[in-house]
Design a protein that fits this description.
Layout: H1 10-17, H2 23-31, H3 41-59, H4 66-78, H5 95-101, H6 105-115, H7 121-154, E1 170-172, E2 179-181, H8 182-188, H9 192-197
Antiparallel strand pairs: 1-2
Helix pairs in contact: 3-4, 3-6, 7-8
Pfam families: RdfA
InterPro entries: RdfA
Length: 198
């Protein structure tokens, strides 16, 4: 494995660190296939992480069948399951380091769209459609809530001037805990705060 430069995006550093030359081109090709055969960013993240583990194993002189590598990669990524029985640390594989080098589907999306300048038109249109639907739902919720408040004010159940109602849907990132409007979250392909840290 090569040394990685910390200032570069994580996925670029990992590709270089594990000598995964060509994997970027593979992921671009898989992501831009026709709808029926293309791989999603989640599937590509699994594919990428399996290749990372396989490279780490081979560096330590360990060659496993693909199914075993897939099983082990899933356990490492999960972090909640035990690797008892694999006995990798004693064989020269730093599981914690490998786990840190694994990437999320957001990282894959950012890599494909920002660093490889790849677009998948159907996906872009789908996102626009979902954001539009979300805003329609929020507008409907605002209308209903405004009606409820107006009735309450007119019946003297709520005192003072009638408030302005705004409805927004927020996503709370499980990784960093930040709140982001769902429309922004969708258009960004994930948490903006986490995207900036990659």
């Amino acid at each position: 494995m090569r040394n990685a430069t910390s200032t570069r995006p994580k996925i670029i550093r990992v590709i270089d660190k594990y000598d995964l030359d060509g994997i970027g081109d593979e992921m671009v090709a898989e992501w831009t296939k026709p709808e029926s055969t293309r791989r999603s960013c989640r599937e590509l993240a699994e594919f990428f992480n399996i290749r990372v583990l396989d490279a780490a194993l081979r560096e330590a002189g360990i060659i496993w069948d693909r199914s075993l590598v897939e099983e082990c990669a899933a356990i490492i990524k999960d972090r909640d399951k035990s690797l008892t029985g694999f006995d990798l640390d004693s064989r020269g594989v730093d599981i914690d380091e490998v786990g840190e080098d694994m990437v999320s589907y957001q990282s894959i999306y950012t890599y494909l769209t920002e660093y490889r300048d790849t677009e998948y038109e159907r996906e872009i249109n789908d996102i626009h459609s979902r954001v539009k639907s979300l805003r329609q739902i929020e507008t409907k919720a605002e209308t209903i809530a405004t009606g409820i408040i107006s009735q309450s004010v007119s019946h003297n159940q709520v005192h003072g001037a009638e408030p302005q109602i705004e409805v927004t849907t927020e996503c709370i990132c499980e990784t960093c805990g930040s709140n982001t409007e769902m429309s922004v979250y969708l258009q960004n392909g994930g948490c903006p705060a986490c995207s900036q840290s990659r």
